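Take the subject:
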Amino acid sequence: MSQKEDQHYIDKVINGDTRAFSVLVERYKHMVFTLAAKILKNHQEAEEVAQDVFVKMYSALTAFKGDSKFSTWLYKIAYYRSLDYLKKQKRSLNTSSIDSDTEFHLASTENALDNLEANERKQSIKNAIDELPEDDAVVITLHYFEELSLKEIADIMNLEANTVKVRLFRSRKRLAQLLKNKLEPEILDNYERK
């Protein structure tokens, strides 16, 4: 949905159109839930926080000025609501696997092996991301899996875009090193068996 389309529905919600609110919720519910689940590492808690985010969105919609994309504004609410939830539970940020609940479908038997190998690579990357420091995992998730720009991530995390760029660079290096340390022994073991 474009910024113009978002604004159209935002204006309708402000004027009391509850169906327009449903459109915004439907459009962004997956995005909000995914971020909450990534931070909270618990499906039920993520659902609870996502509901809270949409309640907050509804009550604060008049405060949205359009200086950033609506999705960025909403992501920021979701990010800080998730962190607040962790504080209330006296827990710290601990990232989890991305899309851990996604279903794995095989299109046909011809590409089953390719899909299996791709899934194993994806799982290796997810596991390595779980081992990264919390901020690194969140930055990588937002940039590569949620496809947000550096500016959008900076807005969400209250950082400068250059700071995000540096964190992303360092996070990628740490991730690459983790993957190298994990995969090289597997490759060597596999090679030695042959």
Remarks:
- The two ends are 52 Å apart (CA to CA).
